[in-house]
Amino acid sequence: MREKLKYHRLFKKYGNPRDNDTFSLLRSRCKKLIAEDYYVFVSSVESSLEHDIKNFWRFVNSKKDTNAIPQTMTYGNLVSSDQRGICELFSRYFGSVFDSSGVTADGETNGIPYKLDPVYLQPGTRDYKVNIPTLPQCVNREIGVTANICDEDVAPSGTIPEFNTLLVYRLGNYQHIGVVSITVYCH
C-alpha cells in the first residue's frame, strides 16, 4: 500500500508514464489482496457463527451504541447542540465549499440572495414536495434558486421541476430528521 502511494505521488509530481504503470500494477494487486482477505474474513465469521454466536452479537451490539453526530458543534459564532441545528451548521459549512448536493434551477445565482427558513424532513417519509414561496422582496422577479439538502446518512437528491417546487428524494436510512436550506436569488 505504501509503495503504491509512493508511485502515485511520483507520477503526480513528475508525470513519468512508468511511475503510472507501476502504480496501476500495484493498485490492481492491492485490490486483489483486499478482495481475497475480505473473502477469508467473511468465511471465518460465517464458520464462527456455528460455534460462538454470542461473540457475533456482542460485536453487532457494540456498533449500535456509536453515534457519528457530535454533541455540540460550532461554526463561526454559531453553536448548536440539537440534531437539527448541527445538520444546518454542516449544511452551511459544506454548502460554501461543496455544492454538489445542492439543486439549482435556472442556473442564475448571481442575483441578490434571500435565505429562507429551513424546511425539516420528518423521519419515515422518503419523498417530499417542498413549496418555494414567491418573495415580495423580489420586485423584478426571481432568477434562481438553490437548495442544500442535508440528511444524517446518505445525501438526498432533489429536482426542481417548476420554479416554486422542490422534489426531495431521500436515500439510505430515512429514519432521521433531514434539513433543506433554500436560497432564492432576485434580479
TrEMBL record:
Lineage summary: Eukaryota, Metazoa, Ecdysozoa, Arthropoda, Hexapoda
Source organism superkingdom: Eukaryota
Organism the protein comes from: Spodoptera exigua
Protein name stated in the entry: Uncharacterized protein
